[in-house]
Amino acid sequence: MDDLLREFLTESAESLAVLDLELVKLEQNPNNPDLLGNIFRLVHTIKGTCGFLGLPRLESVAHASENVLGKVRDGELEVTPEIVSVILKSLDRIKSLLSALEQTEAEPAGDDTDLKDQLNAIAEGKALPKAATPAAAAAPAPTAAPTVVEKQAEAELAAAAEAHAEASRAAAVAAIEEQAAREPSVAAQSIRVHVNLLENLMTMVSELVLTRNQLLQILRSQKESEFAAPLQRLNLVTSELQEGVMKTRMQPIGNAWAKLPRMVRDLAHELNKKIDLKMQGAETELDRQVLELIKDPLTHLVRNCADHGLEGPEDRRKAGKPDTGRITLDAYHEGGQIVIEISDDGRGLPIEKIKAKALANGLAAESELASMSDEQIQQFIFRAGFSTAAQVTNVSGRGVGMDVVRTNIEKIGGTIELRSKAGRGTSFFIKIPLTLAIVSALIVEAGNERFAIPQISVIELVRATANSSQRIEHINGAPFLRLRNRLLPLVNLSSLLKIAGAADKKTEDACIVVTQVGKHTFGIVVDRVFDTEEIVVKPVAPILRDISMFAGNTILGDGSVIMILDPNGIAAAIGDAGMSHHDQSAETATAHASTKDERVALLLFRAGGDTPKAVPLALVARLEEVDVKAIEISDGKPVLQYRGKLMPLVTIDPAYSVKTEGRQPILVFADGNRSMGLLVDEIVDIVEERMNVQLGTEKTGLLGSAIIAGKATEIIDAGHYLTVALDTWFDPDKASADGTKSDAKRILLVDDSPFFRNLLTPLLSVAGYDVTSVEGADKALALCEAGKDFDVIVSDIEMPGMSGFEFAEAVKSGRWQNTPIVALSAHTSAKDLDRGRKVGFVDYIAKLDRDALLNTLTQTITTRGAA
User: Which residue of 13, 182, 389, 573 pairs with 397 in a disulfide if CB–CB is 3.0 to 4.6 A?
Assistant: First the structure.
């Protein structure tokens, strides 16, 4: 191909890509003269080059488009969607002609009269032809044939008009060329380099990095060497060269977005929707190789947002949203990765439709779906062939796409995460590496073999021992790492790779690489951890290509060839179901462990003596420290103007006197519009401890004593001080006078432990419930016989005399048979849960799981009200 023609094709392709983007912007900002001037210049350049190269067909289409843009620039025409559509159509025609020109090196034969008639009609201010034929665009035939004189007059008039138009165009062209001459030439600031040349340069730099690593390895083995200084200099130069060559491969991610505005614009017309595309972070740079691989996933995700995500204007108005839906693209650096966020403000993912489709496709049983969270159910859209579309359209609905998106992203070491909320929209988060050529990796050993793990996937390294808080536990035969009170599933690398002679490591002492893949976090058990090293990624041999656990191989500084592990492949080898099972087992085990230990967050403070005191943190609304001058006396009692109201202040010790100067710490307890402040001397700490009240007390305001943070600590009775501040605090009949609701839902709390009754009563009262507490099942049944009614019964299971199971059976056979019962217990095994369901408990809550109890009560009361 002629060099001149090749240059023309390259420049025209770049100009057309810019024109697509600029025309969509012009439609949104029709009064932007700079935008219009740039569009006109680009079209004029294409037309002028076509005439120079002798391409009449291309020149005529570009000339007709230029006429329309000239009229718009001169203010004779207004920018309308119809005009933009026809201009875009002419650009598409130019693209097709250029494509044929590239293949045959000759302009294809054909006629563009239909398109030129439309463009000329717009330029002359006429209505668009109804049919794409010259006959349709022509004026109606006259009733009588024109005379020779009339024909001559018409010809002269047309010639004069054409001469005037040519003169105007020539003047406009001269003005544009003069303006362009004053601007710096882009061609003078950059040169084009063939991609293969950059790839070869990158390969040579990779080899140089390998040689550098080998020389540094030799230098480490020799403590004193005359080559130390030159090698350090070589190391520095190599690093700078590597960075410089990497920059030549980097391109702004906006290059991958160039076609999206045009695509969204066309989709909006096709789907009869109003869509606004926002693009942020387009200047974020990414490796060219990675950029090419994410173009298709990005395109599909944006199409998916436009079709599935955004509602039509009518549906958006009904939902209280603006008519125009919004799709947002954002790119930014985070933790050595590029994060691309694609989000919409549409309807969100339909959970029930996904459930039904998963059930119909046999992807999960009904019992499994019932136990899954919304986030787990949403992951079904990444399964092959999964689609909730009612019918197949030109845009989507064929059941392909999302699985390919995830596969393509994972191929380049990336991950995709999904967040969706009904009625609010859906967001996809793509995390991908900056480059695929040279990466930082952690070198580990398993079964006498070394492997590299990309550091971008490594969260931390942990040394697990039997005597530390970071220890390995086995639940149902599966190993888990207890890491900061969270159980993490483990996989033994030697066993997973089936390395010959490597025994499964069952010792409690192990090196663990904590790795994250998407939303899943797991630990890889290895025998030894060496160091981090910059490695050059080489493709795997064809014989190993089907093993997904390997991402490639590399050569270390000592000349050894090792495999690079792919954390995504390891997660896939474990299996999505297995990983989910591991995660659920970990959550269950953690909940069981916390229930067994009965741990609760406690606020430690000092007040009225040297003995530290504690109160469950869940009961405290806020911690305040005020100037003592702000404390006033009302009716002989201290009060504080707090958030527009008077808040009564209470002291632990009645003999305690308020300070005269300085700052006063206060624990604030709140319930609806009421609040109470407890004056203390000092707020010490917040700890999480096992609640084991060892010494009871008859002292008012105290529940007893326990060992907290290694010291004997008094547990205060928060409920007592609430009634001291306001004697009607727990009186529902007088609650309305205090500014709270008098129609609070009634809860019957049955527990033989005074500690738990005194703990849960204020907690539930602060949550807005009217609580009646009794110490045993017999007294509860006596209330039933007395005609008392409650909205929900919360009962302990382990009680002397009549157990919670027997109490539930008695309730279900009497007048309270329609009253829901919630169980409280420290035992939450599958057997206990099954027995609880059989006797009538609607839910089974671990003791001291405050959030679970409140959520269950809310859900139970709502369900009962609906029924």
Answer: 389
CB 304 within 8 A of CB 396: yes
**Within 10 A of 626 (CB to CB), how many other CB atoms are there?**
16
For residue 100, pLDDT over 70 is answered with: yes
Alpha-carbon span 854 to 774, nearest angstrom: 19
> Is the model's pLDDT at 186 over the cut of 60?
no
What is the model's pLDDT at position 327? 92
pTM value? 0.46
Contact criterion met (CB below 8 Å) for 473 and 480: yes
Considering only CA atoms, which of 529, 525, 535 is closest in space to residue 570? 525
Buried/exposed 364-381: b ≥16 CB within 10 Å, e otherwise: beeeebeebeeebbbbbb
Q: In sequence order, what DSSP letters do the residues of 734-751 get, joined into one string?
A: GGGGGTS-S-PPEEEEE-
Q: How far, in Å, CA of 98 to CA of 107, rounded? A: 8
Residue located via tokens 């309308």: 80
DSSP summary character for residue 129: P
Q: What is the CB neighbour count within 10 angstroms for residue 129? A: 17
Q: 225-244 pLDDT, tens per residue?
A: 788 888 888 888 888 887 78
For residue range 507-524, list pLDDT tens digits in order: 567 888 888 776 678 888
Judge contact between 432 and 414, C-beta under 8 A: yes
Q: Which residues does residue 795 pair with via DSSP β-bridges, in sequence order?
A: 750, 823
CB of 481 within 8 A of CB of 488?
A: yes
The top-scoring range by mean pLDDT among 141-150, 244-253, 300-309 is 300-309
Distance CA 751, CA 768 (A): 20
pLDDT score for 697: 61
d(CA 612, CA 203): 67
Higher pLDDT, 831 or 786: 786
Instruction: Spell out the residues 6+ positions from residue 707 whose beta carbon is closer than 8 angstroms to its own.
Output: 692, 694, 713
Check residues 745 and 169 and name the one with the higher pLDDT.
Answer: 745
Q: How far is CA 76 from CA 73, 112, 125, 644, in A?
A: 8, 25, 9, 63
CA torsion sign for 673, 674, 679, 683 is negative
